[in-house]
Design a protein that fits this description.
The complex is a heterodimer of chains A (about 180) and B (about 550). Chain A has about 180 residues and is an alpha+beta fold. Chain A contains 1 helix and 12 strands; from the N terminus they run αββββββββββββ. Chain A is elongated, with a radius of gyration of 22 Å. With about 550 residues, chain B is mainly alpha-helical. In chain B, the strands form 3 sheets. A two-stranded antiparallel sheet of chain B has the order 1-4. In chain B, strands 2-6 form a two-stranded parallel sheet. Chain B has a two-stranded antiparallel ribbon with strand order 3-5. The longest helix of chain B is centred in the N-terminal third of the chain and has 36 residues. The radius of gyration of chain B is 23 Å and the shape is globular. Classes of the chains: A alpha+beta (about 180), B mainly alpha (about 550). Chains A and B meet through α1, β1, β8, β9 and β10 of A and α2, α6, α10, α11 and α14 of B.
């Protein structure tokens, strides 16, 4: 083979590579901008040393609460070595905003079988928007090493059909809803 | 081209680097197999969270920092003396670098084994371990900077004496890796020196975690390309010759090495896709840049495929794929290249999912990720390290292997072990199995079905262990083999270049482009921590029982 032949084949291959990568980028770009598929990216800071005095993340405000528009906000604290609360009820088929932060070290937050997945970094609030379409229980492990008790850090997300959903006058709900 | 002898007093230096690299590797694979046993729920005799996470820290520290750094350095010294055919500019400096690393390894591993630095190899501030762990790692990095200096020095000396001539391809790739490593280590070095070490000495009580994670991410992706480059250099400069042919294109090799350096650095934030301290814009930008990393790999697959196809056809292979079967698969370097390509394909597929910004949320920090990087590191990188060791060791000690059979068996065991280990991890990752968890409660019906998959994966781990230990044994038997020729021959291109553009023969342009890319990709993401109102987190000592 002479040098020109080699260069010709290489140019053809380079063109194929460029087209392939361009398609890959286009797919991701379109799904991000048109379908608004973004990773949780919400640069919101909070002081990890004063979380107890922070009204939003005070212990009696954690868990699920129904907003006036019917959507649900869930607030969670991830701390060595448990999530508070341990079980989180959410209504089926309604938009849910999950807000989670940590007072101590880095944790991870994953609802198995869904795309709800974020790091939990002290000093920041991580926010996820999602809708749970199927009723049932999902596991919620801590997925980032947070110390020797890390393996024991699991919680539960309970997706409840709207017909069975109950909450008190303040919009608060718990996992004890009769099923 | 005539072969180049490994003389110039570099043999012992190279053997020292390789020897320690593979000795620590043997320890780390034993730890890995044990960790798999713990996760499988089969209850090994001795297990506790302390032991498990100390073991994970040791496994990661060896596989991430110690083994590949020493291997790449030994590889670099070998390539420098054999491809340039001249002694290293300064052997004493090389030994100083080596002994600094030895001191660093001992200093870092002692607190890990004592349970005083259980922070995993990714550190996780505000978790803070014994200062000796971090200082030891700094010494490993500083020792490797001696190597960087020697590689650049050796190439520029050679260029001065050979004006206008193209730097031999193997050495060009080697110096590309030296520059890559220099840029790569800056992130983690800054994290250790300005954050982790002051905190572990008690000089500061808090750590800015957003900054620490960003600096670490800077290092965390390109470090993989630092490990990978010797494999790529072997693809271009050893595999075609081992098959009995020539390299299709020398220029494509140079271009691929440069693109690997350029594209691997400004992309580490894809490790932070689900982190709260960065906005969407820069994550998206770094995702786009990450996709470009596929380009040099696709170019390499073409060039090496074409080089091999010519050999296969000369050996009588016909049809679209017949040439593949006609290749001399009994030769370790050819077999390793084939296995490495296949494993790189699977690993790369998983990687494009991780990279995909939206899809990443499905598998972030699950066993899927562990599967991906074990395929890349264990599969494509270490398989080639084996083949390179089988190529270099006989020249270093002047002995031939007794037989190629145990070498082939070893490569197959390792590759099969990797597949059996990582394929179940992909499945488990999709089911949501988190990584870095020591034990699972398989009595819970929600996860009971995970256990059979983890057991299969553990069996894969033991196959890998067998392959890894057979590798060490194969090296030992080399010392009993018949005398061998100590000349090293690199693959020659079909049309060896007479002159190449200076951009493909040096690194000035590459470094300027990198500076620009790094400023673009990391300027704001790092700068923001100095002007947004963020809150550093109080440190958590793991070495003082806190």
């Amino acid at each position: 083979m002479n040098e020109q032949d080699i260069q010709k084949t290489e140019r053809r291959w380079a063109a194929i590579v460029i087209v392939a990568v361009a398609i890959m980028l286009a797919v991701t770009g379109v799904s991000s901008f048109v379908m608004a598929m973004h990773p949780p990216s919400h640069v919101e800071t909070t002081d990890p040393t004063t979380l107890g005095a922070n009204k939003e993340f005070a212990e009696n405000n954690l868990g699920a609460s129904v907003n006036p528009d019917g959507s649900v906000t869930v607030r969670i604290i991830a701390a060595q070595f448990a999530f508070v609360p341990r079980c989180i009820p959410v209504p089926q088929g309604k938009p849910v905003t999950i807000r989670v932060t940590s007072p101590d070290v880095i944790h991870g937050f994953l609802i198995a079988g869904t795309n709800a997945n974020t790091m939990v970094v002290p000093g920041y609030v991580s926010e996820i928007h999602t809708v749970f379409n199927e009723a049932g229980d999902h596991l919620m492990p801590c997925h980032e090493f947070c110390g020797l008790g890390h393996s024991e850090m699991w919680s539960l997300v309970r997706v409840i059909p709207q017909s069975e959903w109950r909450n008190d006058e303040n919009g608060r709900a718990s996992c004890d809803i009769p099923r | 081209m005539e072969g180049r002898a490994v003389t110039y007093r570099a043999d012992r230096l190279i053997l020292a680097h390789f020897g320690v690299a593979f000795a620590t590797f043997a320890v780390a694979i034993i730890l890995g197999a044990w960790q798999m046993t713990v996760r499988s729920g089969l209850n090994p005799v001795f297990t506790s969270p302390e032991a498990y996470f100390a073991s994970v820290t040791a496994h990661g520290t060896i596989m991430g920092y110690v083994m590949p750094t020493l291997f790449v350095m030994g590889f670099g010294y070998f390539v420098a003396v054999t491809s340039l055919d001249r002694p290293l500019p300064n052997t004493r400096l090389a030994w100083i670098g080596f002994w600094l690393i030895m001191a660093g390894v001992v200093m870092a591993m002692a607190p890990v084994l004592a349970g005083k630095a259980t922070v995993l190899y990714t550190f996780y501030p505000p978790l803070t371990g014994s200062v000796f762990y971090y200082l030891g790692l700094v010494l490993v990095v500083v020792g490797s900077w001696f190597w960087i200096a020697l590689m650049i020095w050796a190439m520029s000396d050679w260029k001065k004496d050979n004006p206008g001539k193209p730097v031999p391809l193997a050495m060009f790739g080697n110096v590309a890796n030296a520059f890559l490593w220099l840029w790569t280590t800056a992130g983690v070095a800054a994290e250790l020196l300005f954050q982790a070490i002051p905190a572990s000495l008690g000089w500061t009580q808090t750590i800015d975690i957003g900054l620490a994670r960003t600096l670490f991410a800077w290092t965390l992706h390109p470090i993989v390309y630092f490990w990978l480059l010797p494999a790529y250099i072997a693809f271009y400069t050893m595999a075609p010759r081992a098959a009995g042919g020539r390299l299709y294109s020398d220029m494509m090799g140079r271009l691929s090495f440069l693109l690997l350096v350029l594209y691997s650095l400004p992309v580490g934030m894809h490790h932070l896709f689900t982190d709260p301290e960065h906005g969407t814009g820069f994550k998206f930008l770094q995702m786009m840049l990450t996709a470009l990393v596929t380009v040099p790999t696709l170019l390499t697959i073409f060039t090496i495929g074409a080089s091999m196809e010519i050999v296969g056809r000369l050996r009588g292979g016909r049809g679209l794929f017949g040439w593949i079967g006609a290749l001399p698969w009994d030769r370790p370097m050819v077999l390793a290249t084939g296995l490495s390509f296949v494993l790189l394909g699977f690993g790369g597929f998983g990687g494009t999912i991780n990279m995909s910004y939206g899809m990443n949320a499905m598998i972030h920090n699950t066993s899927w990720v562990t599967a991906h990087f074990h395929l890349i590191y264990g599969g494509s990188v270490v398989t080639m390290y084996f083949a390179i060791a089988y190529e270099f060791w006989p020249k270093l000690v002047g002995r031939q292997p007794l037989s190629l059979k145990p070498i082939r068996l070893q490569l197959w065991l390792w590759a099969i072990g990797i597949v059996v280990t990582t394929f179940p991890w992909h499945v488990l990752g999709l089911f949501g199995e988190p990584r870095r968890v020591a034990t699972f409660d398989y009595a819970n019906p929600a996860i009971a079905f995970w256990q059979p998959w983890t057991i299969v994966s553990m069996i894969g781990g033991y196959i890998m262990l067998a392959g890894g230990l057979l590798f060490v044994w194969n090296l030992v038997t080399l010392y009993r083999g018949p005398e061998a020729d100590r000349q090293m021959h690199y693959a020659v291109a079909l049309h060896p270049p007479q002159r190449v553009p200076s951009a493909l023969n040096g690194f000035a342009l590459c470094n300027w482009l990198l500076l620009f890319l790094m400023l673009m990709a990391y300027g704001y993401p790092i700068g923001q921590f100095f002007f947004i109102k963020d809150y550093p987190a109080p440190i958590h000592r793991v070495d003082l029982g806190g």
